[in-house]
Amino acid sequence: MQDLAFYFPGILLAYSTFLLAIASPGPNILAVIGTSMGVGRPSGIALAMGVASGSFTWALLTLFGLSAVLTAYASLLLLIKIFGGIYLLWLAFKFFKSAASLHDIEAKELSGARLRPAGYFKRGYIIQMTNPKAALAWIAIISLGLQDGAPFSVGIAIVVGTFMMSIAIHVLYAVMFSTPVMARLYSRSRRVIEGVLGTFFALAGLRLLASRS
User: Fold this and answer.
1) pTM assigned to the model
2) What letter would DSSP give residue 211?
3) 24-31 — which CB contacts under 8 Å span 24+ positions?
4) Which of 56, 62, 105, 198 is the most exposed place for a label (fewest CB within 10 A)?
5) 138-165 residue pLDDT tens
6) In angstroms, what CA-CA distances link 141 with 21, 63, 84, 109, 175?
7) The Cα angle at residue 151 between residues 149 and 157, in degrees rounded to 5
8) How confident is the model over 43-77, as pLDDT tens digits?
9) 5 confidence band (pLDDT: 50, 70, 90)
10) What stretches of 73-179 show up as alpha helix (H) in DSSP?
11) Does residue 186 contact residue 120 with C-beta atoms inside 8 Å?
12) What is the pLDDT of residues 180-199, one digit of tens each?
């Protein structure tokens, strides 16, 4: 518990980065929204749970992979942080570019025959696990939270906490956007939200690049 308290600022930064990363619709969120609007709330929730489970899997793979690498080659931590920082700056650029665009979000139902909830769960999981950007995002998130010499419990706290947030946020999207009016309300404030997200990721990326521990 004392270790977690000492590393809490890093854990909180990892939580914040993850929370803001899924707050703005990307392909996975748009799939949840489109399914909720086109098929119904239960199917949207099932897809959301699949996406959240995929995110949890990526988090575990990243944590154990980075932990193994850093155990053998501790000097690689700086290189990993540089890589993660560059990715966060790239995300900031994408958000700023999107915020400057007048193009609204497009939430569409996934193509193919309609499925039972278990089928939508599987589809959501596959969507997340076949998304190469998820791996890059998790390298950045774990790198933000793990300082040099941090105990393994810090990584576990990041994974468990982000998994709970992932379930809450994805399911919330499925429930909220089961009616078209919510998509219209979000589109009205989209540019401001994405501008704020771009600023956060730019600052987080610069912080990671400036970190030496």
Assistant:
1) 0.67
2) -
3) 24/95, 24/193, 24/194, 24/197, 25/105, 25/107, 25/186, 26/133, 27/127, 27/131, 28/124, 28/127, 28/128, 28/131, 28/170, 29/170, 29/173, 30/105, 30/106, 30/107, 30/108, 31/110, 31/124, 31/127
4) 105
5) 877 887 777 767 777 888 888 899 999 9
6) 10, 10, 8, 29, 27
7) 130
8) 889 999 998 998 899 888 888 876 566 556 656 66
9) confident
10) 76-100, 117-129, 132-145, 152-176
11) no
12) 676 667 667 667 766 776 78
Q: Are 63 and 145 in contact (CB under 8 A)?
A: no
How many Å apart are CA 121 and CA 86, to the nearest integer?
A: 32
Structure tokens at 87: 């990715």
Please count the other Cβ atoms lying within 10 Å of the Cβ belonging to residue 165.
16
Q: Which string of DSSP letters, residue by residue, matches 26-82?
A: -HHHHHHHHHHHHT-HHHHHHHHHHHHHHHHHHHHHHHHHHHHHHHH-TTHHHHHHH
Q: What span, in angstroms and rounded, lies between the C-alpha atoms of 68 and 21? A: 26
